[in-house]
């Protein structure tokens, strides 16, 4: 295989903000974000950089925690990149290989390709990377259109830094689980009737433990932590009131309100873990978009674009000025302990590609 090659059609600059350095990626014809991961204290952004004829180049942009960008490397082996880390912390990608006759997914490292042949292709797995279970990177997929199809898991087996085998598993019903990797096991939680089923499975897909949790008619948005031996925490929201639900080892539930924003969530996205019990997650509402950071049951910061040309941090009242009131937050990833990177872009027109992508590096003090 060929190594990734340098790409010159992305220009970058950095500006300092009171919240951390912001990197601005600029293109001539358009750029869109398609995932990000943290690696070696940096952020790797998977970008689509558009050409004048409407086609695009998949590009990986490397950005340090100081906001300095580079290199930008073009992907030449395929499209639809899905970034992840192997058990040794090295960056890999699954992508659909260029083939006019078949749609097959290959999985390759970002670096060291010259030492390998193009791997055998597989049927594409549509799920997202959930993290590491033991020595296996895990991907999870739920069919949102079926009440009877079980969730699917893909576990990738590595040995000495080499991908050896892909293991496809099915998680027994109920479906539409939230996934929480925890050392050598995976925790799953999903609605079952009027309550929620919490299970722990190993990398072979074997169930180790289960319990039923009664949230008293409440629903949750995201998992903050899951445990059978200690407290579990779930992020909940109802009519604009945001709470942390803490479940003890006996199943008793306590609710702690952390913020009222006045509008219900439309969506939330899987939290990024940046420290012990510290999670960062993004959301959107009818009024705007944003992200927030929680430590246990304590809210540390809350950024919201409602009525702002940028984002207001609601606890301090300070504003991250972006000179735009229509901002999307496509990704958040850990860079190092107690630090993260959040990407965003503006939407000015439904018929025109956005030409700028922003990445803010933030460290908690």
Oligomer: single chain
Alpha plus pi helix count: 0
Q: Give start-end ranges of low-pLDDT stretches.
A: none
The biggest beta sheet is recorded as:
7 strands, antiparallel
Helical fraction equals: under 10%
Whole-angstrom Rg: 21 Å
Strand content range: over 45%
The rough form would be described as globular
Task: Give a verbal description of the structure.
The N and C termini lie far apart (44 Å). This protein has strands at 5-6, 11-17, 20-26, 31-39, 42-50, 56-64, 69-74, 78-85, 91-97, 105-109, 128-133, 136-141, 152-159, 162-170, 178-182, 185-192, 195-202, 207-213, 222-225, 232-238, 241-247, 253-260, 267-268, 272-275, 278-284, 289-295, 298-304, 310-313, 319-321, 327-336, 339-346, 356-363. The radius of gyration is 21 Å and the shape is globular. 0% of the residues lie in helices and 58% in strands. The protein has a domain at 1-116. It is mostly beta strands and 365 residues long. It has no helices and 32 strands. The strands form 7 sheets. Strands 23, 24, 25, 26, 27, 28 and 29 form a 7-stranded antiparallel sheet that branches. Strands 1-7-6-5-4 form a 5-stranded antiparallel sheet, with no helix packed on it. The model has no long low-confidence stretch (mean pLDDT 96).
């Amino acid at each position: 295989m060929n190594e990734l090659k340098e790409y010159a059609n992305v220009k970058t600059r950095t500006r300092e903000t009171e919240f951390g350095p912001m990197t601005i990626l600029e293109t001539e014809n358009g750029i869109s974000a398609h995932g990000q991961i943290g690696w070696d204290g940096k952020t790797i952004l998977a970008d689509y950089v558009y050409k004048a004829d409407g086609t695009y180049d998949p590009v990986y942009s490397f950005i340090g925690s100081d906001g300095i960008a580079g290199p930008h490397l073009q992907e030449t082996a395929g499209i639809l990149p899905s970034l992840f880390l192997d058990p040794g912390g090295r960056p890999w990608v699954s992508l659909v290989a260029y083939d006019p006759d078949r749609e097959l997914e290959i999985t390759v490292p970002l670096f060291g390709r010259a030492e390998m042949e193009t791997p055998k292709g597989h049927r594409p797995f549509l799920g997202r990377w959930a993290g590491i279970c033991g020595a296996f990177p895990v991907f999870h997929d739920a069919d949102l259109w079926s009440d009877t199809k079980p969730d699917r898991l893909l576990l990738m087996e590595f040995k000495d830094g080499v991908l050896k085998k892909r293991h496809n598993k099915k998680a027994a019903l109920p479906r539409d689980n939230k996934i929480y990797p925890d050392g050598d096991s995976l925790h799953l939680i999903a609605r079952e009737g009027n309550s929620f089923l919490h299970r722990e499975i190993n990398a072979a897909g074997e169930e180790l433990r289960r319990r039923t949790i009664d949230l008293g008619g409440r629903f949750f948005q995201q998992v903050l932590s899951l445990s059978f031996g200690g407290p579990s925490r779930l992020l909940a929201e109802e009519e604009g009131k945001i709470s942390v639900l803490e479940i003890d080892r006996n199943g008793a539930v306590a609710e702690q309100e952390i913020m009222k924003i006045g509008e219900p969530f439309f969506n939330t996205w899987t939290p990024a873990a940046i420290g012990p019990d510290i999670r960062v997650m993004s959301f959107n509402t009818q009024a705007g978009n944003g992200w927030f950071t929680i430590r246990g049951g304590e809210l540390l910061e809350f950024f919201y674009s409602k009525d702002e040309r940028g984002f207001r941090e609601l606890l301090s009242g300070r504003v991250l000025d972006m000179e735009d009131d229509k901002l999307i937050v496509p990704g958040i990833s850990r860079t190092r302990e107690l630090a993260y990177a959040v990407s965003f872009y503006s939407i000015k027109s439904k018929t025109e590609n956005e030409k700028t992508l922003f990445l803010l590096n933030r460290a908690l003090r």
